[in-house]
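Notes, Module 5: Reading structure tokens.

Key idea: the token line is not a picture. It is a compressed description, and you learn to read it the same way you learned to read a sequence, by spotting repeated patterns. We will look at two proteins. The first is printed below with its tokens.
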Amino acid sequence: MASKHELFSRRARRTRYRLRERGQGRPRLSVFRSSKHIYAQVIDDVAGRTLVAASTLDRQLQGKLDKGSDRDAAKSVGRLVAERALAAGIADVVFDRGGYRFHGRVRALAEAAREGGLKF
């Protein structure tokens, strides 16, 4: 039987494969969550570089958050990444949830990014 890490990476590969097919060249909003923090990046896969990034470790969010591992923190990161992406001229992205289920902190980040003006 496959380990949980192998299953996670398999789900992430499957998700990214579908995004490549349906993304039509749009940048990808990638989410990583750890037990203590949440991170979001807007990545241009063609050029292979990160265009915009935000996380609960950002200086703009440091004093405002009680902890970096709850839905409120994810909402703050989603708003911040949307604000930075719009400032960089990026409005349309593809949401990459990786191997995570679309619920909890991942969903809160996505909804806050949509409210912030990103379209996906």
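Here is the second protein, with the sequence above and the tokens below, as before.
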Amino acid sequence: MKTSFKFLIAIATSTVILFSCEKTQELEPMLNSSQKSALQTTSNLSDESMKNVSSNNILAVGCEVYSLVLGGKSGTPHLGGLDSYLANVDMITGNTTATSQINILGIPVKSVTGITKAPTPATTPPAIFGVTGINSNFAGSLLKINPTTGLAINAGSTKMGNVNIFLQDIEYCFANNLYYAIIEGTNRIVSSPNGLSWVNVPTVIPTTVQLNGLTFRTIGNITTLWVIAGAGNTFCGANYGNMWELALNGAFISINNYNAANTIWTNKELGLDFNSNTGCISRNFVVGSASGVLSNNLTLCPALPALIGTGQIKPTYDYAKK
């Protein structure tokens, strides 16, 4: 199959592209009296990789975005026992400037697999939603997280019908008011009106493919869904990560290639973002890595990505806009 380039000219030449699929609904899980009394900060930064960042002021500003950082390297399904943090990442330098550990009533939540922001209705601080995979100590849950303290509330189980499912890389799209996610360790994309009850989004992505991240891109009034797999057919060279562009109903549009410079990155590419904030810096597609690499690619195949920052990158698994 040949690579489709029909959107690459628009990516390369556009300087202002609206990122329109962000998270605009907020779930309102009920808190009991014990939960309300337990609203407290937990800053157990026990993992060695997190000791050089601040545990204060987890409020993304300027060119920063929220990122999901785990205390260790893992592909999907995520390993169990990995401490989970919300961090601020500067999209110019790649530096991690602050972090808070995700916890429920003071118990660290292990192996969170995806995050998305919920800016409406407005909350102070803004809420972050998270999902957990099969190996978490709170497996198959939707979390509502205070990014300043890391305190999370379990909003319920993620299900398809009556069956529990385990998700990664949750995102919200206001173009159709649906949440999207990947069933952990598979090629399957699902959608939901509330983050709890999910249905399949039919696609042509082969069952042999393991998807690692998803995001949305809007040009004009057209919003499309993009997903990345850490490995696939090579269109650009020896090291690669396939990217599918899909309509919001899952219909195939194109297949592209995120041409990485190192096979380790593509094997553990986790967390895909589309960042075109020209008030900060236009990054277009940004890919995180469990291997501690953050990179972006303005034109996709055949161009190599550019590294964002050096020496400060944490194992990054997902993003949420500020």
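Summary for the second protein:
- The two ends are 38 Å apart (CA to CA).
- Confidence is low (pLDDT under 50) at residues 1-20, 22-53.
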